[in-house]
Design a protein that fits this description.
Blueprint (H helix, E strand, L loop, with lengths): L1 H5 L15 E6 L7 H12 L3 E7 L8 E4 L2 E6 L11 H26 L4 E5 L4 H11 L3 E5 L3 H5 L5 H14 L5 E4 L2 H8 L6 E3 L20 E9 L5 H8 L5 E9 L1 H12 L4 E5 L3 H10 L2 E4 L14 H9 L3 E4 L3 H9 L2 E4 L3 H12 L2 H17 L3 H22 L1
Parallel strand pairs: 1-2, 1-5, 2-4, 5-6, 6-7, 7-8, 9-10, 9-12, 10-11, 12-13, 13-14
Antiparallel strand pairs: 3-4
Helix pairs in contact: 2-15, 3-4, 8-13, 10-11, 11-14
Length: 405
């Protein structure tokens, strides 16, 4: 992957940066396309650590054991398969509890094979495993909150469940020794409920080039979206917006709720200039982003979680030097305006259409915004800078362990 070479940018692997720790991470997906978990695990390995990711093989579609770029992956499933529909939350919630038990038991077995030094839980739906394992093994626990979990599930679950999860997270987060957040508003939220040290590690991407490169899409203005497919992202709006535009095409890739994905796929099939790509392998996302003209990131400003977050799309666009289209009244829109790296519009199909036309008809504007985007990546928003913070966090845990030992 392109990530491998870029990680040498600030000298990972030097003696002063060495992390001699054996880390067990937990993630509630099969760990096939999780860019954040991959980046953190890979950085720790580059710095001399060892990482085992215990993942949820919910559909039993992936190998139970695998090594990916030096990362040991152990996938644990249950006998129940996920369900979808109005009342599926009860079934899936019970299935999650079963996975917690199975993942905890597997981690205990793994710890006897190779002693762990740190537990690293990704998102709230793995935190209970980490807390139980911490009590059993006496290890430091990192809670890596990718989202404000209750805000995120509020888009699909009854509000009372979302509120209960918010309350429960506030109780359990105090059990962690370190907290990682992905953006500043999230840090402010967690700092009100715990005094544990918090590090902000954004979903930035490794620098690909220090020189601006124009798009290479054979002359047709192309808007790209690769990411989560759910109602918080205005992907159907993009499909509708381009259908009457000449000289424009949109490409859509990603994964999400099967019913939502199927409906989106069928909608794209009815429109000549919209193409549904399906799930895009992680190592192809950045090269594809660099090939096309513009990245789409319109978020429903009513979505409690996404409206205050910075998405992967923002950082992918920056390292590729591509303009982005965002929504007014969101944090992604605020950063886009501040850095002058794209267009920020109202959350309407007409506003989106006009933004696409503006970028299509003005190559000079596209280049200006693209150059600004690359400059922002070089100076502020790149994984090399975020990686330093991750390694500093682990170094502090390593030093504490040596002192107590």
């Amino acid at each position: 992957m392109c990530l491998n070479n870029a990680l040498t940018w600030h000298g990972v692997g030097n003696q002063q940066d060495e992390i001699n720790m054996n880390v067990v991470m937990f993630v509630s997906n099969p760990f096939t396309n999780d860019a954040r978990v991959y980046a953190e695990a890979k950085s720790l390995i580059q710095a001399g650590g060892r990482v085992t990711v215990v993942a949820w093989n919910s559909k039993r579609e992936n190998p139970p054991r695998q090594t990916w770029d030096g990362i040991d992956i152990v996938r644990v499933g249950t006998r129940l398969s996920p369900k979808y529909g109005a009342a599926s939350w009860l079934w899936n919630g019970f299935n999650l509890l079963l996975w917690w038990r199975q993942a905890y038991r597997r981690a205990l077995i793994l710890s006897k094979e190779t002693r762990f030094d740190v537990i690293h839980c990704h998102d709230f739906d793995t935190l209970a495993i980490g807390i139980r394992l911490k009590r059993k093994l006496g290890l430091p626990l990192i809670y890596d909150a990718h989202e404000i979990y209750g805000y995120m599930v509020a888009r699909s679950l009854p509000r009372w469940i979302a509120n209960m999860l918010l309350w429960l997270e506030k109780r359990l987060v105090t059990k962690a020794d370190r907290i990682i957040n992905a953006w500043e508003a999230q840090r402010r939220y967690f700092s009100r409920v715990t005094d544990r040290p918090i590090s902000i590690i954004m979903n930035c991407k490794p620098l690909q080039s220090m020189e601006y490169q124009p798009a290479d899409n054979e002359g047709k203005f192309t808007v790209l979206y690769i990411g989560g497919l759910h109602k918080g992202r205005a992907v159907p709006m993009l499909v509708h917006a381009v259908r009457e535009l000449t000289g424009v095409q949109c490409l859509i890739g990603g994964s999400g709720h099967p019913n939502y994905v199927q409906a989106l796929k069928e909608e794209c099939s009815r429109i000549s200039n919209a193409t549904f790509l399906g799930k895009v392998p992680l190592d192809e996302v950045i090269p594809m982003t660099g090939k096309y003209d513009c990245v789409f990131l319109m978020i429903d400003p009513a979505d409690l979680n996404n409206s205050i977050a910075l998405a992967n799309k923002q950082f992918e666009a920056m390292v590729c030097g591509r303009p982005i289209i965002c929504t007014k009244g969101t944090y992604s829109g605020e950063v886009t305006e501040q850095e002058e790296v794209g267009l920020v519009v109202e959350y309407t199909e007409e506003a989106l259409k006009q933004a696409i036309i503006k970028l299509r008809d003005n190559p000079g504007l596209r280049e200006k915004l693209g150059r600004n985007a690359l400059e922002a990546a070089i100076t502020k928003y790149n994984w090399q800078k975020e990686e330093v913070k991750l390694l500093e966090l682990y170094k502090s845990l390593q030093n504490e362990s040596q002192l107590s030992g």
